[in-house]
TrEMBL record:
Active site, UniProt feature: 115 (proton acceptor)
Residues that carry a glycan: 270
Keyword ATP-binding found: no
A GO-annotated cellular component: membrane
The protein's Enzyme Commission number: 3.1.1.2
Keywords: Calcium, Disulfide bond, Glycoprotein, Hydrolase, Membrane, Metal-binding, Signal
Amino-acid positions noted as binding Ca(2+) 2 in the UniProt annotation, renumbered to this chain: 54, 117, 169
Species: Strigops habroptila
Cystine connections: 42-353
Name of the protein in its database record: Paraoxonase
Record gene name: LOC115619038
InterPro entries the record matches: 6-blade_b-propeller_TolB-like, Arylesterase, Paraoxonase2, Serum_paraoxonase/arylesterase
Length: 355
């Protein structure tokens, strides 16, 4: 009888494990191959060799690019010993170049590990840059003031809080307030993997201001990119693990309520919003398994979607760019400014296209 019970338990555990692995395999689109859809006028950006995870463009065409992310469980950057950087590109130039921004003294550059970013232009035209940072395996949001003449970032403060568990992307809603996504509850890769393996929905969105910090949305597989509509009434959240984008209504007390969910057939990472049209641009991973496996012989591909009229009954989803990884590996973001498109990646390069 004892042996029968043992056998039954082993059988149940084995069946459960197989079922979970198959679910995870399917959820990551591990068997998906992408058909390339190139754009005609694109070039890789010189000087960006170790990722461009997030890109945010100011209304005047200055683009900020975060580079050098080291993320648990992912292949180390192609330049693993180099600290992270923020690049600037002026998209008004004919042949824009990426320039590395300097940091004010006192900011620990050596452990800088930038992830999602967001800009905020204050009433007095001061430009603030919010950066999700993972120094020494921690989760912080760094607040900088951008000094254009000096091409530098003046560090104003480091936000630390127990609710920043596994921060991914940030959207500024004031000079010192923001929403931030936690893509998992844990930041350690083993526990992060367990969350994915068990299909837990412990990922959330947190609102932060100096006066109040609170969870405003929860129940995501993996909340990743976050952005705001041009009228600043709606917040868009990409759940990369659930292949969708949630539209949330923002209220006066900063709480969020669910409006709708747009289902996609790919793993959307960061979201950008075209200020002139309201179109949402998503940098996507066609195959999540290839991203974590990161075999240079069979690298992760890239995919960019444009979503028009996201608030309407029938949003129009168009694939604008796709690549099997031979040009661009692991796209995370696509940002647009007056017909110029920047596509960023987790640890690879960055692409500049004229549409
Ligand atoms: Ca962002
Ligand atoms: Ca992201």
């Amino acid at each position: 009888m004892g042996k029968l019970v043992t056998l039954a338990v082993v059988g149940i555990v084995a069946a459960f494990t197989v079922e979970r692995l198959v679910t995870l395999w399917n959820r990551s689109y591990a068997s998906r191959e992408i058909d390339p859809l190139p754009l005609p006028n694109c070039q890789l950006i010189k000087g960006i060799e170790s990722g461009s995870e997030d890109i945010d463009i100011l209304p005047n065409g200055l683009a900020f690019i975060s580079s050098g992310l080291k993320y648990p469980g992912l292949k180390k950057s192609f330049l693993p010993d180099k600290p992270g950087e923020i690049f600037l590109m002026d998209l008004n130039e004919d042949n824009p170049k990426a320039v590395e921004l300097r940091f004010s003294r006192g900011f620990d550059v050596t452990s800088f590990n930038p992830h999602g970013i967001s800009t905020y232009v204050d009433k007095d035209d001061t430009v603030y840059l919010f950066v999700v940072n993972h120094p020494h395996q921690q989760n912080t949001v760094e607040l900088f003031k951008f000094v254009e003449d000096d091409r530098s970032l003046v560090h104003l403060k480091t936000v630390r809080h127990d609710l920043l568990t596994s921060a991914n992307d940030v959207i500024a809603v004031g000079p010192d307030s923001f929403y931030v996504t936690n893509d998992h509850y844990f930041f350690d890769f083993i526990f992060m993997f367990l969350e994915m393996f068990l299909g837990l929905t412990w990922s959330n969105v947190v609102y932060y201001s100096p006066k109040e910090v609170k969870e405003v949305a929860a129940g995501f597989y993996s909340a990743n990119g976050i952005n705001i509509s041009p009228d600043r009434k709606y917040i868009y959240i990409a759940d990369v693990g659930d292949h969708n984008i949630h539209v949330m209504e923002k209220h006066a007390n900063w709480s969020l309520t669910h409006v709708k969910t747009l289902q996609l057939d790919t793993l959307a990472d960061n979201l950008s919003v075209d200020p002139s049209t309201g179109d949402v641009w998503a940098g996507c991973h066609p195959n999540g398994f290839k991203l974590f496996h990161y075999d240079l012989e069979n690298p992760p591909g890239s995919e960019v979607l444009r979503i028009r009229n996201i608030l309407s009954e029938e949003p129009e989803v168009t694939r604008i760019y796709a690549d099997d990884g031979s040009v661009l590996q692991g796209s995370t973001v696509a940002s647009i400014y007056k017909g110029k498109l920047l596509i960023g990646t987790v640890i690879h390069r960055a692409l500049y296209c004229e549409l």
